[in-house]
Amino acid sequence: MTKLIVTDMDGTLLNDKRELPETIWNTIEQLEQKGIQFAVASGRQYQTLADIFAPVKDKMLFMAENGTIIVNKSEVISITALDKALVQELIAVARGLDDCHIVLCGAETAYVESTNERFLSKTRDYFHHIQVVENLTQVEADVLKFTVCDFRNPENYSFEFFKPFADRCKPAVASEIWLDIMPTHANKGEALQKMQQKLGISNAETLVFGDYMNDFEMMQYAQNSYAMVNAHPEILAISKFTTRFDNNHNGVIDTLTALGLVSF
């Protein structure tokens, strides 16, 4: 019996226009009536997710910033931050990369120093709370996630420069322009496992949807793991199932309907 449904956002629940399915509110209501908790696991900041799901945020579980901050029904469950000295090293490396820009993700806001308009335009889509500072090395707030906006594609470029840090943090390609670096033991999978234990929900009672490499660990903590048909090849390879439709054709909702969890 399904008790927890967890979905990624970009490339999964959202279409390419970054729009929610029209039936999302009805879906969440139907799941709630059946005692099934609906959760979002995303690289987006919590404030952005709370804005998107404003009508139901107090009923939802959020694993934001790739699991570095967990909020259940508006209660902060856990926050995991990067080592401050490590952040300084990461800044130095990222500043030396071509066509790359840095976002320091804090619990309350995101910090940027670049005023490149193309970068800021992309950043505003994912971070509703942004503070522009003169020098990122002077940011005193805890950094939950170090993000690089890489217009050359992180899988082919910036990811290689952060591999030497893999014993001290967890780099993950989140999309064709975003590279996320989290604390070693913080990712969507770790966050999911933590919440399963807290809520008393097993892997067999969990259903997850994802499409990209920052969903990799999450797929391993649910017996019912669904890769979007538009997913990265490695996610398609490790998932147990694949959706019939992509994110532009309501693949998540279609699957929930086919499973009899919701009806329209």
Structural write-up:
- With 264 residues, the chain is α/β, with parallel strands linked by helices.
- The protein folds into two domains: 149 residues, HAD superfamily/HAD-like (Rossmann fold); 100 residues, Hypothetical Protein, Haloacid Dehalogenase-like Hydrolase, Chain: A, domain 2 (2-Layer Sandwich), CATH 3.30.1240.
- It has an eight-stranded mixed β-sheet with strand order 5-4-3-2-1-12-13-14, sandwiched between helices. It has a six-stranded mixed β-sheet with strand order 8-7-6-9-11-10, with helices on both faces.
- The protein starts with a strand and ends in a 6-residue tail after the last helix.
Strand order of the largest sheet: 5-4-3-2-1-12-13-14
Number of domains: 2
The percentage of residues in β strands lies in: 15-25%
**What would CATH call the architecture of the largest domain?**
3-Layer(aba) Sandwich
Total strands: the figure is: 14
Could you give the distance between the termini? 21 Å
Largest sheet: 8 strands, mixed
Q: Name the CATH superfamily classification of the largest domain.
A: HAD superfamily/HAD-like
How many separate helices? 9
Might you state the CATH topology name of the largest domain?
Rossmann fold
Helical residue percent? 25-40%
Uncertain segments: none
CATH domain class name of the largest domain: Alpha Beta
Shape: globular
